[in-house]
Amino acid sequence: MRASGNEKRSWKSTGVVKLLAIDYPIIQAPFGGFPSQQLTAAVSNLGGLGSLGVVTLGSSAITEVIQEIRSLTTKPFAINLWVSTSDRQAARIKSDIIQSKIRGLARYYAELVIEPPSQVESKPQDFEIQVRAVDARPAVLSFIYGIPPAEILDECRKHAIRCATLEVLSAD
């Protein structure tokens, strides 16, 4: 005990660890636009919260991805949805830029002994259709670029799905 009488808390003994039923307060940033189910499962298997961005997937593909991740881990993981899929800049990202970013992550793929994606396509989807992934009941749904309608949050609560929002900050 500390001199103040307060028990010293471990860095991994946090509210978020308890809330999300994970071992460490580590949450993987969700990668969107290319398949990273293996990475998501690996992070979860190691005690963090693996996350997968699914901005380019339709509802049925999201359900399939959730099933694939569940085949790779029994631990909690998050699915990340863009509340607004009207990002016109995303549709203009060139393939060579995407491939350059994937090459920049090569050491992480090698370290985790997983193959990087061979091809990535930008296919923005409709949020209202994507959010049907609630039916597949991931442990966590995270949202970026907005807060979903109250009905969606109510549906998540009904199925004990934890919800989170993510912020994207610019240095500009």
What are the salient characteristics of this protein?
172 residues, alpha/beta, TIM Barrel, 4-stranded parallel β-sheet, globular
Q: How would you sum up this structure, described in words?
A:
The chain has a single domain, classed as TIM Barrel (Alpha-Beta Barrel). Helix content is 34%, strand content 12%. The chain has helices at residues 15-20, 37-45, 59-72, 95-104, 106-111, 127-130, 150-158; strands spanning 50-53, 77-82, 140-144, 162-166. Strands 1-2-3-4 form a four-stranded parallel beta sheet. β1, α3 and β2 (77-82) form a beta-alpha-beta unit. The longest helix is centred in the middle third of the chain and has 14 residues, at 59-72. It is globular. The mean pLDDT is 83.
Could you outline the blueprint of secondary structure elements for this entry?
Blueprint: H1 15-20, H2 37-45, E1 50-53, H3 59-72, E2 77-82, H4 95-104, H5 106-111, H6 127-130, E3 140-144, H7 150-158, E4 162-166
Strand residue percentage: 5-15%
Radius of gyration: 17 Å
How far is it from the N-terminal to the C-terminal residue, by CA?
44 Å
Number of strands: 4
Helix content: 25-40%
Structural class: alpha/beta
